[in-house]
Structures are given as structure tokens and as C-alpha cells.
Amino acid sequence: MDSKRLLVKTSNRNTDITQSIEDDPLIDGPLIARNALESAIKREFQKLPTNWGAITLTVLHVAYVSVCVALAALCWLTDTHSAECTAALNGVDSRSLVLLLKVGLWLLVFLFERCVQYHHSAVRRRGYLRFYRKTAKLKHLPLLIHSAGNAAVLIVIAPASMLDNKVKNLSVYLLLAVICVELLASVICLMVYAVQVSRFNKQSLGPDITEDERSHTFSGTDSDMHAEMGFRDGSSLEEVVEKQADLIEYLKQHNTQLSKRILTLATQQTHNRD
Predict the structure, then answer these.
(1) Nearest to 176 by CA among 160, 188, 190, 192
(2) Higher model confidence: residue 26 or residue 216?
(3) SS3 track for 66-110
(4) Quick one: which of 92, 90, 97 has its CA closest to 70?
(5) Which of 201, 176, 205, 152 is nearest to 54 (CA)?
(6) How far apart are CA 238 and CA 244, in angstroms?
(7) In the chain, where does DSSP find H-type helix?
(8) Apex CA 34: angle with CA 19 and CA 44, to 5°?
(9) Buried b vs exposed e over 223-260: b needs ≥16 C-beta within 10 Å?
(10) Residues 6+ away with beta carbon under 8 Å from 223
(11) So what's the pLDDT on residue 166?
């Protein structure tokens, strides 16, 4: 009987201690208002400005092709305006001008690709992993198309004299064909990219994990709870591991920023009390 009473007393003491710990957490610590914390954590949606770069690059590419067609029609395919073309270009060879403009256009595409990569990396860090993966290959296509177009232009221009000996102005027609095909492929890629970015900016959604939690809360079903993270038929293990790595990296950054903001708010409230 004495042992039972002793066990009852010790259990009561343990429960009293646990209850006191649970009822009074962080008594001496500053209490942070929920509204203040949510307002500090909530981020404003940041739009991507790269769609305007894609549109500008498309306009410049169309202008370049128009200049090439005009030079070909006035200076290359006919001999009547050759002297006028030389005078208008201040003695610069028209084909050299086309090549210089082509190099300048490629540099603009390269700078655009670097700018897109920078902004998309920032989008990835903010938790928009689906959009990042959706445009991962599309954002590199314009530079690849222009690089392939440069190689094709060099292949056509290098044996230009030999081609023209076989068929008159064959190199000019091949050059125009390469430039037009390059324009068509580049414009399609840039317009598709611009539409996707504009749609992303218009939706102004939160990070993927936030939208998933919100959709699961409203739907009340758990059928698609881990659809993006699980391994399914037809999905590669490498892709699943990469998705998990991206999500873990985002959660780490989010937790770090959250901890810093909580400490900042706690410090502010401590100073206000003092």
C-alpha cells in the first residue's frame, strides 16, 4: 500500500510539473502578435520583367531580317544599285554589315539569356518551382537557335564563290533561307516564353508549397497531397530527387528568413516594453 501511495504521489508531481511547463511556455520571453508576424512574413508577389525583353528581342530580330532582305534585293541580286549601296553604307561591304549585325544580335540574345537565368534563379529561390521547371528548357532555346543560325551562316558564306559559280546567287538565297528559318524558330520560342511569363505575372500566385496547402485545405482531400514529391510510373528517379532537393532548399531558406524576422520582431517588442 505504501508503495502504491508513493507511486501516486510521484505521478501527481510529474503531471504537475508537465502541466506547469505546458501552461506557462516562455513566460519571460516577449509575446509576438500574430498579425505583426504574418505581416512581416508575407511577401509581395514580384513580377518577372523578362517578357518585355523577349518582345523587344523579337522586334529587333524582325528588323534585322528586314534589313538583310532589303540589302539582298537592292545590292546582291541586282547590279544596278551596287554603287548606290556602297555609297549609302559609306564604303562598308553589305555582306560584312550583315555579319556584324548578326554578331550584335547574337550578343543581345546572349545577354537576354543571362538576364532570364538570373530572374528565374530568383523565382526558384522564392519557391516557384513548377514555373522554373516549366521554362527550364524554353529559356535556353533562343540562344541555341541563334548559335546554330550563326554556324549555318558561316557554312553558307565560306564557300559563297564556289556556290555562285554553280548557280548564280545561290549563296544569297541560302543565306536568306537560313536567316528566315532562324527568325521563325526564334520568334515562336520567344512568344511562347513571353506568354508563359505574362500568365505567371497575371496569376500572381504564392509559392508552390503555399498554393498546395491552400488547395488541399479547400478541397479536403489528400489524393494529391504528395503528387509532386512521390515516385510514380513514368517519372524518373533523378527528376524526383531533383524536385525534392529544390523543395528542401526553398524550405531551408524560408525557415532561415522566418527565424530572422521572428528575432527582429522580438527585439522590437523588447525595446518597446523598455
Answers:
(1) 160
(2) 216
(3) HHHHHHHHHHHCCCCCHHHHHHHCCCCCHHHHHHHHHHHHHHHHH
(4) 97
(5) 201
(6) 10
(7) 2-23, 34-41, 50-71, 82-88, 94-125, 129-134, 141-157, 160-166, 170-203, 208-219, 237-273
(8) 145
(9) eeeeebeeeeeeeeeeeeeebeebbeebeeebeeeeee
(10) none
(11) 82
Between CA 142 and CA 185 the distance in angstroms is 8
Cell readout for 15 is 503531471
Rg (CA), the chain: 32
Length of the chain: 274
Res. 20 pLDDT band, cuts 50 70 90: very low
pLDDT of residue 205: 80
Q: How does 77-110 read in b/e, with b if 16+ C-beta sit within 10 Å? A: eeeeeeeebeeeeeeeebbebbeebbeebeebbe
Indicate the residue type of 260. Answer: K
Whether 113 contacts 140, CB under 8 Å: yes
| Domain residue limits, the chain | 50-206
C-alpha cell at 163: 556556290
Give the global pTM: 0.67
Quick: pLDDT tens for 97-124: 889 999 999 999 999 999 999 999 888 8
